[in-house]
Specification:
Layout lengths: L1 H14 L12 H11 L2 E3 L4 E3 L9 H30 L6 H18 L14 H13 L2 H28 L2 H12 L2 H7 L5 H16 L3 H12 L8 H13 L4 H22 L4 H16 L8 H15 L1 H18 L9 H25 L12 H21 L4 H43 L7 E4 L2 H7 L6 E2 L8 H10 L2 E7 L5 H5 L12 E9 L4 E8 L7
Parallel strand pairs: 3-4, 3-5
Antiparallel strand pairs: 1-2, 5-7, 6-7
């Protein structure tokens, strides 16, 4: 009976804020008896026996199951609808997507005809995304939509992983749903989820590795890291990062996960050797392309105030300013704990947030080093997406941590974060609309070439605009680019004549040979052998694409 009285006393204290701190022992039993009667506890004979409470309408466990049955379909629907619509109605966000689409079509043709060989996987990019889309395309038979649909599905998966990782870190359903909505409704993420590119599938595998790492399932974490390493080469760094995190958390390193993550680079080196007899062929091709890009664009070959400000702004708005601030705050908190690791063991909370912090700053440092060494001379918006995706769970954790330690700051921080996130989203939306306008100009030129150029003739098209080339549907071998073109006007005309160039396409204010040789070429006016045909332009995110017919072989203006 004494034990039951203690239990009732504890329950009564928690539920009754008026419970006096110094309660005279004389009246304690009477008070507990009245409280027990109100909770269906009745004294019967010796001791206290309980009468079963009346049947309740719900139980906490049942509520949780019901919430999950409703929540997950709702999350999937919210993430799927905009991405599925985008896959069918939005253009690709970047010109590289059309090269992926071409590779998808080539691979699917070889798979369906039974001529596929392992060496066919070799190319400028790692092959996992293209292979998945090619398998789908065997049934869909439309490489354009196959690539976009695969990316859209992975985009939905990214949103769900953001929710799962956030909930694992914070144990807060509200915070997890909020982070999910920030990624699910983010304009830039929707745009790239609807594009046939590797950025979103790669982010899915990275988040999968992070989620299972938080669960201490090292085999599955390594498997997702290996899939990421088959998609983009930067994920090969997980070979070092995941064992390091395991060493900090468990004071040991498992061999099996390391072997799993070693498989992608070994496999890719073998594919490169089998296709070209050079196991580093892919990296040599990338370096050759980079050298050509810097030669054709001397403005980006060196740092300038304008370029640095432009690239810095792009990174800030694509990764989100609030997310970056939260990640640096969380990184500082974790670093303070790591500096004391020789004196005390890391808390469980610090061990949990350690993995997201390591993932975030690993990608941030990789991008920063590549930019400073000119291995990545331009920061595109899509580069910040992986930071935004990894940073959202950290943002939720950091806010809840600060709210716990500085509750008076919580409201101001929340309002500030919402304002910054809204502003960044509006900038991203404006950028997406500008890209759509650019696509319309590219499509006008591509459709003219498709309707007026005879692909069966021996003539060619000079064009550096990759999107126009792919949208036209004209075979790749029918195009000539600035690569290898002479930089002297007289020799350039001979170059066009030797290759029987019928049409010349170039983008104004971009570093291509025609722009460098003929800066005074005016819109709508004939310039030597160049006869203007189309001038497609946009006002928002200004783009001007000119299409000229080459009418005189070797003639000079």
């Amino acid at each position: 009976m004494a034990g039951k009285i203690c239990e009732l006393s504890t329950e009564f204290t928690k539920s009754n804020s008026a419970f006096p701190r110094a309660l005279p022992w004389a009246g304690i039993y009477e008070r507990l008896r009245r409280f027990g009667e109100s909770n269906m506890y009745l004294p019967l004979g010796e001791g206290i026996k309980t009468v079963p409470p009346p049947r309740t309408l719900y139980s906490p466990l049942g509520m949780a199951k019901t919430q999950n049955r409703v929540l997950w379909p709702a999350l999937i629907a919210v993430a799927t609808i905009p991405r599925l619509l985008g896959a069918f109605f939005l253009p690709n966000a970047f010109g590289d997507a059309y090269v992926y689409i071409r590779d998808i079509g080539t691979l699917s043709t070889k798979i369906s005809t039974g001529t596929f060989r392992l060496a066919d996987l070799f190319g400028f990019w790692l092959p996992l995304y293209q292979l998945i889309a090619a398998v789908l395309n065997v049934f869909v038979r439309n490489g354009f939509y196959s690539g976009k649909l695969v990316s859209a599905v992975f985009g939905v998966g990214v949103c769900l992983f953001v929710y799962a990782v956030t909930f694992t870190l914070t144990n807060s359903r509200k915070a997890s749903v909020l982070m999910f909505l920030l990624i699910a409704l983010n304009p830039l993420h929707i745009f790239y989820s609807a594009s046939a590119m590797t950025d979103i599938p790669h982010a899915f595998f990275v988040l999968g590795a992070l989620y299972f790492l938080l669960q201490k399932n090292w085999i599955l974490a390594a498997t997702f890291a290996a899939l990421a390493g088959c998609t983009r080469v930067e994920s090969w760094m997980f070979i070092a990062l995941i064992p390091l995190i395991q060493l900090v958390r468990e004071r040991r390193v498992s061999i099996a996960p390391v072997l799993i993550m070693l498989a992608p680079p070994v496999f890719w080196f073998y594919i490169s050797w089998k296709a070209t007899s050079d196991w580093l062929a892919c990296f040599r091709q990338r370096q050759q392309y980079l050298d050509w890009l810097l030669m054709m664009n001397p403005a980006i070959a060196r740092f300038s105030v304008v370029n640095v400000l432009r690239d810095g702004a792009t990174l800030l708005f694509s990764s989100d300013i609030a997310v970056l601030i939260a990640c640096f705050v969380a990184g500082w908190l974790v670093l303070r704990q790591l500096l004391k690791i020789h004196r005390q063991r890391l808390s469980e909370e610090t061990q949990m947030i350690l993995a997201p912090i390591v993932f975030f700053f690993a990608f941030f440092a990789l991008l920063l080093v590549a930019y400073l060494t000119h291995q990545q001379p331009i920061i595109f918006p899509r580069y910040g997406l992986i930071l935004f995706t990894l940073g959202l769970p950290i943002l939720a954790w950091a806010f809840l941590r600060v709210r716990e330690q500085k509750p008076l700051w919580a409201r101001r921080l929340l309002i500030g974060a919402i304002a910054i996130l809204s502003f960044d989203a509006s900038v991203q939306f404006a950028g997406a609309m500008g890209t759509i306008n650019q696509y319309r100009a590219q499509k006008i030129v591509a459709e003219y070439l498709r309707d007026h150029f005879d692909a069966k003739s021996d003539t060619r098209i000079f064009c550096d605009e990759g999107t126009v080339k792919v949208l036209s549907g004209i075979p790749e071998e029918k195009f000539v680019t600035s690569s290898g073109a002479p930089l002297e006007a007289d020799r350039f005309w001979d170059f066009l004549a030797e290759r029987k160039v019928e049409y010349l396409v170039f983008v104004v204010n971009q570093s291509s040979v025609p722009n460098r040789l003929f800066p005074d070429l005016e819109c709508g006016k004939r310039y030597g052998p160049l006869e203007p045909v189309i001038n497609a332009r946009t006002r928002f995110l200004p783009t001007e694409i000119r299409l000229c017919r080459v009418t005189g072989r070797g003639a000079q203006p």
